[in-house]
Hints:
This protein is mainly alpha-helical. It is built from twelve helices and four strands; from the N terminus they run αααααααβββαβαααα. The radius of gyration is 19 Å and the shape is globular. Belongs to the peroxidase family. Classical plant (class III) peroxidase subfamily. Belongs to the peroxidase family. Ascorbate peroxidase subfamily. It comes from Triticum turgidum subsp. durum (Durum wheat).
Amino acid sequence: MAKIIAAAPSLAGPLLRLHFHDCFVRGCDASVLLESTDGNVAEKDAKPNKSLRGFGSVERVKAKLKAACPGIVSCADVLTLMSRDAVVLAKGPFWPVALGRRDGRVSSATEASNELPPASGDVPLLAKIFASRGLDLKDLVVLSGAHTLGTAYCPSFADRLYTTTSENGTSGLVDPSLDSEYADKLRLKCKSVDDRTMLSEMDPGSFKTSDTSYYRHVAKRRGLFRSDAALLFDATTKDCVQRIATGKFDSEFFRDFSESMIKMGDVDVLTGAEGEIRKKCHVLN
């Protein structure tokens, strides 16, 4: 992992996101890593997962573990460990990872599209999705802090910048919760709602470092996604966001983040004789 992140520091965020997207669909069973087949469209080909990265790195780590301990370490455990190590190598907290997960045999793009928390979601919707995974409102706020790492393509947030006024034209600021100066900067990168050529940092100036600056951006109405802004404007989450944003409680936040990551990593895991231990993460045995 040290070599992977040293060679590509921007990969820490994608690996963390890969784990998150895995755990929210069928639990942490590495189903997000499976390739589609002639008879099935897998999770990774669902629209919310089209921009996921890091699959090759997971396969490389899995191959090395398989060579050393064949049939022992699951892809689900590999992905969970890699997401933890990615955060640590990005100067974030360490947390213990319980092992013994098994790999799932089912992967559905339809399930991923229906069950992943949307970037446009408000707090009631996001809280409902989190609760269905055994995660509470505090977990929602704390795990949103993962947006301190990584980047996003324009289509995931550009609807906040433009409203379509004609077949080929765009104009007008849609989302008044977005700081206007920040919106202007984003428009320079995203020429249209469908612009897939540019990436924007989710935590500008610190997108390769695990810290609390994400919350300071959110508190200034500079969260990239609607779901980020929702945390500031909902009464149930606003105080928590503003407290973290002060920078006076970083140790407490990192402890909370670690606890929430442990909870998420235990969502609906397969154990014992359930599932399998894949030889290669992208295909069933």
